[in-house]
Write the structure tokens for this entry.
Amino acid sequence: MFKKANRMSLVEQVVSQIEHLIESGHWSVGDRLPPEMELMKEFDVSRNTLREAIRALVHAGLLETKQGSGTIVKSTSALGVALHRQMEKSNLYETLEVRLALEREAAQLAALRRNKEDLQEMQKSIEACKRAANTKDLYGFLSADIEFHKAMVKAAHNSMLQNLYEHMTDPLRSSIKRVMISDKHFDYTREIHDDLFHAIKQQSVKDAIGYVNDYIKEFRKKVKQIQEE
Amino acid sequence: MFKKANRMSLVEQVVSQIEHLIESGHWSVGDRLPPEMELMKEFDVSRNTLREAIRALVHAGLLETKQGSGTIVKSTSALGVALHRQMEKSNLYETLEVRLALEREAAQLAALRRNKEDLQEMQKSIEACKRAANTKDLYGFLSADIEFHKAMVKAAHNSMLQNLYEHMTDPLRSSIKRVMISDKHFDYTREIHDDLFHAIKQQSVKDAIGYVNDYIKEFRKKVKQIQEE
DNA sequence: AATGTACCAATCATCCTACAACTTTTCGGA
DNA sequence: TCCGAAAAGTTGTAGGATGATTGGTACATT
């Protein structure tokens, strides 16, 4: 019925101001914030108050401070750090499973919504895959493969989905590669997602789902093998 | 290649200690932390240092402080708050889309992994749905329906998936209900997921996917209608 | 030219004390 | 017993002091 009176603490006010300055692009990733002394004057708060605000954002992953050097903007979104912390506490295979679920959805949406630029990016990754396959460059191949999947998720045109997917992929990079190369009979040609790409290009949702499901089935099999070892 | 030297600041050390005390259950949700003076002595740090640590956890959503009263544990996971913040910045329909993707995956996994307790919980929710349908209690029905979906996701036995799903569902409760009741010809009986429940009970992955896909299609249609208004 | 040393200035890290603001408890009086 | 004032307890904010780390400069050494 009654809304609580807005008694935002000074620290919270400073926090949201800094957050806003970062989101709005006034401070970009990599930029150095003014030193504490100046910020104190700008926000008109004491050093303690300012430091508590900055510390909150450092823990959230938006800022990074180095003694003697200064404070820089590290990210524009706190989701990555939080997700990463959760992933560390959680089972690796559970995380991979969720990631595959996002990928499955992305394939369908990408088939519906992809545009020219999306197709170009995907094609570029596929060609990188093929080049790496020709030179038997396994790690190069896997990197290009991950890029392809990212491009596909981007083509789904859902920023929330993309956000989650990328934040779940980057910390898992090495684990994903480990799963992929666990296959004793690793076959480059079979792993190139040419069919999937063409299904998305032709906007065939049905085929896109089919190919992704095949890929997921393969991936799951490899995960299972590792788990049993 | 090279690991960065690990020089954890005092504040960070206190933060992780408190985090650990919460995770380990030493302090449960709702508990009040000892006053700052005591914590200062316990951790052997100054008030400023301690306060910066606490402030970081307050911003992350694990703690809540009230001037004059004390500090209480609010949550054991910071993911919820971070996800919520991201959702506020993001498009509602994008979030709903991701939520449906998780649900689709959950249905398949639930069909494979559900146990007796899972089935009991799902059945309970379904019966609550039916009771609400009989009395034409629309809001009661929708609440029970959401409970059913949550139970299904729980039955997938993937804590990461469940975590994400619940944290994406709770803040969307009202939006989800709004979408559901937007249907002019809302039909209780059609919305009761009896078929889906039995498919999961019979461990028929194929049927489970089918029913969930039907449900998702319906839901999407309603969302589309709202968007076009 | 590359490396090592000494020094300086800027900046963050930590600690301390003091007081304000708010909440909870205590206690005396009606 | 009930009520309200006082007291005690707790977090919020301010300001000052000192220590530690970093980055840069100048200069000598190899």
